[in-house]
Specification:
By secondary structure, the chain is mainly α. 73% of the residues lie in helices and 0% in strands. The protein is built from eight helices and no strands. It is elongated, with a radius of gyration of 19 Å.
């Protein structure tokens, strides 16, 4: 079995530090999880192939995070352009999705609906922080804001999610 050459330590550091946050960010921008994971790895490949264009110290994680965010955004835009013909099929599939048939499915559906009502920046930080298990500091570096801003967004997002979920539970008659 052929062995692959080891990755450059700098690239390994970027991947270790930003893989989870990038996946969460791409998902918050609307990519499904598998696509978000693929696009995140494509982002690292693009970044490494063009690392000579990086205009900052490669160990400056805030600057690298902003640079990676831009690459990821461009890759996602390109990816979306390739999916324009599939949109109608996706909408038809979503419309035919069966309704929840048990209490757990109903609660998950309420949570999905409540999550969909959140502001985009709240969805973004929840996905990155909880689903990708990224620290507030890493999320802040990737989004180009302060850690305190991320902590406040997380607080506001949890509060809003609870509010929307309670509202949906009341309207559907489901119990906690």
């Amino acid at each position: 079995m052929p062995s692959h050459p080891p990755l450059d330590p700098q690239l390994e550091h970027w991947i270790a530090h930003f893989r989870g946050p990038l996946v969460g960010l791409l998902a918050s921008w609307g990519a499904d999880w598998q696509s978000a994971e693929d696009l995140a790895m494509d982002t690292f490949a693009e970044a490494w192939l063009g690392h000579q264009r990086l205009r900052c110290d490669p160990s400056d994680l805030e600057a690298v995070g902003a640079w990676l965010r831009g690459i990821a955004h461009n890759l996602l835009r390109s990816y979306r352009r390739t999916l324009t013909r599939v949109t109608e099929l996706d909408e038809a599939t979503a419309a035919s999705t069966p309704q929840p048939n048990n209490e757990r499915d109903a609660r998950q559906e309420v949570l999905r609906q409540a999550f969909a009502e959140l502001r985009i920046e709240h969805q973004e930080v929840l996905r990155m922080h909880y689903l990708e298990e990224t620290t507030a500091r890493e999320v802040a570096a990737l989004l180009g804001v302060t850690q305190k801003t991320i902590e406040m967004r997380l607080y506001q997002a949890r509060r809003a999610l609870r509010h929307f979920a309670d509202k949906h539970l009341r309207t559907t008659g489901a119990e906690r």
